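::Amino acid chain::
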Amino acid sequence: MTRDVSLTRRGLLAGTAGTAAALALAGQAHSAPRAAPRSAPGAAATADGFAGVNALGLDGTTGGIAGEVVTVSDADTFLDYCDRNEPYVIQVQGTIAITSKQGVRSDKTIVGLGPDAEITGGGLDMYRRQNVIIRNLRFTGGEDDSVSIQQDSHHIWIDHCAFTAGADGLIDIVRGADYITVSWNHFHTHSKTMLIGHSDANGGQDTGKLRVTFHHNFFDGTEQRHPRVRFAEPVHVFNNYYRDNALYGVASTEDAGVLVEGNYFENVPHPIYSGYDESGPGRVVERDNVYVGSGTPETLGTVVEPSTYYTYTLDDPQRLPEIVPAGAGVGRVA
Protein backbone atom coordinates (compact mmCIF):
# COMPACT_ATOMS: atom_id res chain seq x y z
CA MET A 1 0.00 0.00 0.00
CA THR A 2 1.60 3.26 -1.11
CA ARG A 3 0.45 6.76 -0.31
CA ASP A 4 1.14 9.70 -2.61
CA VAL A 5 4.62 10.11 -1.20
CA SER A 6 7.89 8.48 -2.24
CA LEU A 7 10.13 6.04 -0.42
CA THR A 8 12.96 7.23 1.81
CA ARG A 9 13.43 4.16 4.00
CA ARG A 10 17.19 4.63 4.08
CA GLY A 11 19.38 2.17 5.96
CA LEU A 12 16.52 -0.08 7.13
CA LEU A 13 15.47 -3.65 6.60
CA ALA A 14 12.20 -4.54 4.86
CA GLY A 15 11.34 -8.10 5.88
CA THR A 16 14.53 -10.17 5.85
CA ALA A 17 16.42 -8.22 3.18
CA GLY A 18 19.18 -6.03 4.58
CA THR A 19 19.80 -2.61 3.06
CA ALA A 20 22.34 -1.21 5.52
CA ALA A 21 25.85 -1.01 4.05
CA ALA A 22 28.98 -1.80 6.01
CA LEU A 23 31.15 1.20 6.81
CA ALA A 24 34.68 1.48 5.45
CA LEU A 25 36.49 4.16 7.43
CA ALA A 26 40.00 5.28 6.62
CA GLY A 27 42.33 7.03 9.00
CA GLN A 28 44.48 6.33 12.02
CA ALA A 29 43.11 5.04 15.29
CA HIS A 30 43.90 6.74 18.59
CA SER A 31 45.41 4.52 21.24
CA ALA A 32 42.96 3.62 23.98
CA PRO A 33 42.97 0.98 26.71
CA ARG A 34 40.94 -2.17 25.95
CA ALA A 35 39.54 -0.73 22.73
CA ALA A 36 40.44 -1.89 19.24
CA PRO A 37 39.50 -0.09 15.98
CA ARG A 38 37.39 -2.17 13.61
CA SER A 39 34.98 -1.74 10.75
CA ALA A 40 31.48 -0.95 11.99
CA PRO A 41 28.54 -3.06 10.77
CA GLY A 42 25.62 -0.85 9.88
CA ALA A 43 27.30 2.34 11.04
CA ALA A 44 27.04 4.03 7.65
CA ALA A 45 23.24 3.77 7.55
CA THR A 46 21.27 7.00 7.74
CA ALA A 47 18.02 7.69 9.53
CA ASP A 48 14.61 8.26 7.99
CA GLY A 49 11.46 9.77 9.48
CA PHE A 50 11.91 12.76 11.74
CA ALA A 51 15.49 11.80 12.61
CA GLY A 52 16.32 12.20 8.91
CA VAL A 53 14.92 15.73 8.60
CA ASN A 54 17.34 18.60 7.97
CA ALA A 55 16.65 20.95 10.89
CA LEU A 56 18.26 22.74 13.82
CA GLY A 57 21.56 22.99 11.96
CA LEU A 58 21.87 19.27 11.16
CA ASP A 59 21.52 17.44 7.86
CA GLY A 60 19.66 14.52 9.40
CA THR A 61 21.18 12.12 11.92
CA THR A 62 24.60 10.67 11.10
CA GLY A 63 25.89 9.81 14.58
CA GLY A 64 29.63 9.31 14.95
CA ILE A 65 30.41 8.49 11.33
CA ALA A 66 32.97 11.30 11.16
CA GLY A 67 35.00 9.82 14.01
CA GLU A 68 37.08 6.84 15.00
CA VAL A 69 35.62 3.32 15.20
CA VAL A 70 36.32 1.56 18.50
CA THR A 71 35.22 -1.76 19.97
CA VAL A 72 34.42 -2.02 23.68
CA SER A 73 33.64 -5.00 25.86
CA ASP A 74 33.65 -3.59 29.41
CA ALA A 75 31.62 -0.90 31.14
CA ASP A 76 34.46 1.47 32.02
CA THR A 77 35.73 1.75 28.46
CA PHE A 78 32.20 1.97 27.07
CA LEU A 79 31.22 4.83 29.38
CA ASP A 80 34.52 6.60 28.75
CA TYR A 81 33.85 6.78 25.01
CA CYS A 82 30.19 7.75 25.53
CA ASP A 83 31.38 10.69 27.65
CA ARG A 84 33.91 12.07 25.16
CA ASN A 85 33.15 15.21 23.16
CA GLU A 86 34.54 13.90 19.88
CA PRO A 87 32.50 11.81 17.41
CA TYR A 88 32.88 8.04 17.74
CA VAL A 89 31.40 4.86 16.37
CA ILE A 90 31.31 2.71 19.52
CA GLN A 91 30.92 -0.99 18.79
CA VAL A 92 29.64 -3.03 21.71
CA GLN A 93 30.88 -6.60 22.01
CA GLY A 94 29.19 -8.92 24.51
CA THR A 95 27.36 -7.74 27.63
CA ILE A 96 27.96 -4.35 29.23
CA ALA A 97 26.60 -4.13 32.80
CA ILE A 98 25.92 -0.59 34.01
CA THR A 99 23.74 1.07 36.64
CA SER A 100 21.21 3.90 36.61
CA LYS A 101 21.12 6.12 33.48
CA GLN A 102 24.49 6.90 31.93
CA GLY A 103 25.06 9.94 29.73
CA VAL A 104 25.84 9.82 26.02
CA ARG A 105 27.35 12.93 24.44
CA SER A 106 26.57 14.21 20.95
CA ASP A 107 27.85 12.77 17.67
CA LYS A 108 27.94 9.11 18.67
CA THR A 109 26.93 5.88 17.01
CA ILE A 110 26.51 3.02 19.48
CA VAL A 111 26.09 -0.26 17.61
CA GLY A 112 26.15 -3.85 18.79
CA LEU A 113 28.33 -6.46 17.13
CA GLY A 114 26.30 -9.52 16.17
CA PRO A 115 23.10 -10.72 17.87
CA ASP A 116 24.44 -10.87 21.44
CA ALA A 117 25.50 -7.30 22.26
CA GLU A 118 23.65 -6.16 25.38
CA ILE A 119 23.30 -3.27 27.82
CA THR A 120 21.97 -4.59 31.11
CA GLY A 121 21.14 -3.16 34.53
CA GLY A 122 21.04 0.48 33.46
CA GLY A 123 20.22 2.74 30.53
CA LEU A 124 21.47 5.50 28.26
CA ASP A 125 20.58 9.17 28.72
CA MET A 126 20.68 11.96 26.14
CA TYR A 127 20.50 15.28 28.02
CA ARG A 128 20.85 18.34 25.74
CA ARG A 129 22.57 16.15 23.14
CA GLN A 130 22.20 15.79 19.41
CA ASN A 131 23.07 13.46 16.54
CA VAL A 132 23.10 10.06 18.28
CA ILE A 133 22.41 6.65 16.72
CA ILE A 134 21.72 3.52 18.80
CA ARG A 135 21.43 0.25 16.84
CA ASN A 136 21.51 -3.52 17.23
CA LEU A 137 21.59 -3.63 21.04
CA ARG A 138 19.58 -5.54 23.63
CA PHE A 139 18.48 -3.54 26.66
CA THR A 140 17.54 -5.71 29.64
CA GLY A 141 16.72 -5.16 33.30
CA GLY A 142 17.19 -1.40 33.40
CA GLU A 143 16.71 0.00 36.90
CA ASP A 144 15.34 3.23 35.36
CA ASP A 145 14.56 4.12 31.72
CA SER A 146 16.42 2.00 29.17
CA VAL A 147 16.79 5.00 26.86
CA SER A 148 15.97 8.55 27.94
CA ILE A 149 15.94 11.43 25.43
CA GLN A 150 15.35 14.74 27.16
CA GLN A 151 16.03 18.47 27.66
CA ASP A 152 15.97 19.63 24.03
CA SER A 153 18.01 16.71 22.70
CA HIS A 154 17.39 16.23 18.99
CA HIS A 155 18.18 14.06 16.00
CA ILE A 156 18.29 10.69 17.77
CA TRP A 157 17.72 7.40 15.92
CA ILE A 158 16.97 4.14 17.78
CA ASP A 159 16.92 1.25 15.34
CA HIS A 160 16.95 -2.56 15.36
CA CYS A 161 17.21 -2.91 19.13
CA ALA A 162 15.40 -5.19 21.60
CA PHE A 163 13.97 -3.90 24.88
CA THR A 164 12.66 -5.92 27.80
CA ALA A 165 12.02 -5.99 31.55
CA GLY A 166 12.95 -2.49 32.67
CA ALA A 167 11.92 -0.88 35.93
CA ASP A 168 10.42 2.23 34.31
CA GLY A 169 9.96 3.21 30.66
CA LEU A 170 11.82 1.42 27.90
CA ILE A 171 12.10 4.65 25.90
CA ASP A 172 11.14 8.10 27.22
CA ILE A 173 11.17 11.14 24.89
CA VAL A 174 10.48 14.18 27.05
CA ARG A 175 11.20 17.80 27.97
CA GLY A 176 11.46 19.40 24.56
CA ALA A 177 13.26 16.60 22.69
CA ASP A 178 12.72 16.72 18.92
CA TYR A 179 13.36 15.01 15.58
CA ILE A 180 13.46 11.40 16.76
CA THR A 181 12.93 8.10 14.93
CA VAL A 182 12.27 4.74 16.62
CA SER A 183 12.32 1.98 14.00
CA TRP A 184 12.46 -1.82 13.68
CA ASN A 185 12.70 -2.53 17.43
CA HIS A 186 11.29 -5.47 19.39
CA PHE A 187 9.59 -4.65 22.71
CA HIS A 188 8.47 -7.45 25.02
CA THR A 189 7.93 -8.49 28.67
CA HIS A 190 7.21 -4.99 29.93
CA SER A 191 4.30 -2.71 30.85
CA LYS A 192 5.01 1.03 30.33
CA THR A 193 6.77 0.92 27.00
CA MET A 194 7.22 4.47 25.62
CA LEU A 195 6.30 7.94 26.78
CA ILE A 196 6.34 11.18 24.78
CA GLY A 197 5.90 14.27 26.95
CA HIS A 198 6.99 14.45 30.57
CA SER A 199 3.76 15.39 32.34
CA ASP A 200 0.43 17.15 31.91
CA ALA A 201 2.05 20.29 33.40
CA ASN A 202 4.95 20.48 30.92
CA GLY A 203 3.15 21.92 27.91
CA GLY A 204 5.22 25.11 27.88
CA GLN A 205 8.41 23.20 27.08
CA ASP A 206 6.92 20.42 24.96
CA THR A 207 4.38 22.15 22.70
CA GLY A 208 5.76 22.59 19.20
CA LYS A 209 8.44 19.92 19.74
CA LEU A 210 8.52 16.15 20.37
CA ARG A 211 8.24 15.31 16.67
CA VAL A 212 8.74 11.54 16.54
CA THR A 213 8.38 8.76 13.97
CA PHE A 214 7.64 5.17 15.03
CA HIS A 215 7.70 2.55 12.32
CA HIS A 216 8.11 -1.20 11.90
CA ASN A 217 8.33 -1.85 15.64
CA PHE A 218 7.06 -5.09 17.15
CA PHE A 219 5.06 -4.47 20.34
CA ASP A 220 4.98 -8.06 21.48
CA GLY A 221 2.77 -8.54 24.53
CA THR A 222 3.79 -5.23 26.12
CA GLU A 223 0.86 -3.70 27.99
CA GLN A 224 0.65 0.04 27.27
CA ARG A 225 2.30 3.26 25.96
CA HIS A 226 3.01 2.35 22.35
CA PRO A 227 3.38 5.33 22.70
CA ARG A 228 1.52 7.53 25.19
CA VAL A 229 1.78 11.10 23.89
CA ARG A 230 1.34 14.56 25.40
CA PHE A 231 1.49 17.90 23.50
CA ALA A 232 3.57 16.59 20.56
CA GLU A 233 2.61 17.17 16.91
CA PRO A 234 2.95 15.44 14.62
CA VAL A 235 3.79 12.02 15.97
CA HIS A 236 3.73 9.49 13.14
CA VAL A 237 2.98 5.87 14.06
CA PHE A 238 3.07 3.70 10.95
CA ASN A 239 3.57 0.08 9.93
CA ASN A 240 3.99 -1.25 13.47
CA TYR A 241 2.78 -4.67 14.59
CA TYR A 242 0.80 -4.70 17.85
CA ARG A 243 0.11 -8.13 19.36
CA ASP A 244 -1.58 -9.02 22.67
CA ASN A 245 -1.24 -5.57 24.28
CA ALA A 246 -3.42 -5.95 27.35
CA LEU A 247 -4.22 -2.30 28.18
CA TYR A 248 -3.94 -0.24 24.98
CA GLY A 249 -1.93 0.54 21.88
CA VAL A 250 -1.57 4.30 21.28
CA ALA A 251 -2.83 7.12 23.53
CA SER A 252 -2.95 10.74 22.34
CA THR A 253 -3.48 13.16 25.20
CA GLU A 254 -3.23 16.85 26.14
CA ASP A 255 -3.97 18.12 22.60
CA ALA A 256 -1.17 16.10 20.99
CA GLY A 257 -1.51 15.38 17.27
CA VAL A 258 -0.89 11.72 16.35
CA LEU A 259 -1.31 9.99 12.99
CA VAL A 260 -1.75 6.21 13.39
CA GLU A 261 -1.39 4.77 9.91
CA GLY A 262 -1.05 1.38 8.29
CA ASN A 263 -0.51 -0.63 11.49
CA TYR A 264 -1.69 -4.13 12.41
CA PHE A 265 -3.47 -4.53 15.76
CA GLU A 266 -4.00 -8.11 16.91
CA ASN A 267 -5.82 -8.86 20.19
CA VAL A 268 -5.57 -5.27 21.44
CA PRO A 269 -8.73 -4.36 23.39
CA HIS A 270 -8.15 -0.60 23.04
CA PRO A 271 -5.97 0.05 20.00
CA ILE A 272 -6.21 3.87 20.12
CA TYR A 273 -7.25 6.24 22.88
CA SER A 274 -7.91 9.98 22.81
CA GLY A 275 -7.19 10.97 26.41
CA TYR A 276 -6.09 8.54 29.08
CA ASP A 277 -6.19 8.34 32.87
CA GLU A 278 -6.12 11.95 34.16
CA SER A 279 -4.73 13.39 30.90
CA GLY A 280 -7.11 15.30 28.66
CA PRO A 281 -7.92 14.27 25.10
CA GLY A 282 -5.47 14.53 22.25
CA ARG A 283 -6.15 14.70 18.54
CA VAL A 284 -5.64 11.45 16.67
CA VAL A 285 -6.28 10.38 13.09
CA GLU A 286 -6.31 6.71 12.11
CA ARG A 287 -6.24 5.37 8.59
CA ASP A 288 -5.44 2.16 6.73
CA ASN A 289 -4.99 0.13 9.93
CA VAL A 290 -5.93 -3.54 10.37
CA TYR A 291 -7.80 -4.62 13.51
CA VAL A 292 -8.00 -8.34 14.32
CA GLY A 293 -9.66 -9.37 17.58
CA SER A 294 -9.32 -5.75 18.71
CA GLY A 295 -11.58 -2.97 19.91
CA THR A 296 -12.77 0.16 18.16
CA PRO A 297 -10.21 2.97 17.87
CA GLU A 298 -10.98 6.43 19.23
CA THR A 299 -10.30 9.38 16.94
CA LEU A 300 -10.54 13.14 17.32
CA GLY A 301 -9.90 16.16 15.12
CA THR A 302 -7.15 16.65 12.57
CA VAL A 303 -3.37 16.28 12.66
CA VAL A 304 -0.50 17.91 10.77
CA GLU A 305 0.60 15.53 8.00
CA PRO A 306 4.11 14.08 8.48
CA SER A 307 4.52 14.30 4.70
CA THR A 308 5.03 18.04 5.15
CA TYR A 309 8.37 17.07 6.76
CA TYR A 310 9.50 13.88 4.95
CA THR A 311 8.48 11.30 2.38
CA TYR A 312 7.66 7.68 3.09
CA THR A 313 5.97 4.58 1.70
CA LEU A 314 3.68 2.23 3.59
CA ASP A 315 4.10 -1.53 3.51
CA ASP A 316 0.83 -3.40 3.09
CA PRO A 317 -0.50 -3.55 6.69
CA GLN A 318 -1.97 -7.02 6.07
CA ARG A 319 1.60 -8.34 5.72
CA LEU A 320 3.01 -6.80 8.90
CA PRO A 321 2.69 -9.99 11.03
CA GLU A 322 5.13 -11.51 8.53
CA ILE A 323 7.35 -8.50 7.76
CA VAL A 324 7.90 -6.99 11.20
CA PRO A 325 8.91 -10.05 13.30
CA ALA A 326 11.24 -11.10 10.48
CA GLY A 327 12.98 -7.74 10.40
CA ALA A 328 12.70 -6.15 13.86
CA GLY A 329 15.15 -6.53 16.72
CA VAL A 330 18.83 -7.39 16.90
CA GLY A 331 20.97 -9.39 14.51
CA ARG A 332 19.44 -7.87 11.37
CA VAL A 333 21.95 -5.06 10.75
CA ALA A 334 24.34 -6.01 7.94
